[in-house]
Automatic annotation (TrEMBL):
Signal peptide coordinates: none
Organism expressing this protein natively: Plakobranchus ocellatus
Protein name: Acid-sensing ion channel 1-like
MF annotations from Gene Ontology: sodium channel activity
GO cellular component: membrane
Domain of life: Eukaryota
Protein's membrane topology: Multi-pass membrane protein
Length: 139
């Protein structure tokens, strides 16, 4: 997907961020790469650190990691309450997150396929090596 940078509006009648421009400076502190998703995640973590004084162990950043008690009493209940707010108020409101979409994005569609675990040849080799004496259980 390719959108034109300012002064043109792209997605949802908003400006996009030209992250490929030589003048682009990544505004994010927690992520090396700017994406709208990283921006929203950083905004959410910043709000939680401001509210609880700590971050979850898997959140990006160098802030203090929440104890189990802080996670239960502050972080978890408030993070779930703030998720709809973040989605609805990405570009408007007093506590909004200014997270424009990137002008150039690539999206991949995932697909799942599956097959039996082993072939007849693999079964024979595993049986000969006595790795699996009963190859009936391999499939």
């Amino acid at each position: 997907r390719i959108g034109l940078p300012k002064p043109y509006k792209a997605y949802k009648n908003r400006f996009c961020e030209d992250t490929n421009s030589s003048h682009f400076v990544n505004p994010l502190k927690r992520y090396r790469l700017y994406t709208a998703a990283n921006c929203l995640e950083e905004c959410a973590v910043d709000k939680m650190v401001a509210l609880c004084g700590c971050r979850a162990f898997n959140d990006a950043g160098n802030d203090t990691i929440c104890s189990a008690l802080e996670m239960l009493m502050c972080y978890i209940p408030n993070r779930h309450r703030s998720a709809p707010f973040l989605i609805e108020n990405v570009t408007s409101g007093p506590n909004s997150c200014h997270c424009p979409e990137e002008c150039n994005t690539v999206t991949y569609t995932a697909a799942l396929s599956y097959a039996d675990f082993s072939s007849d040849f693999e079964e024979l080799q595993l049986s000969k090596a006595k790795v699996y004496p009963n190859v009936d259980n391999l499939r």
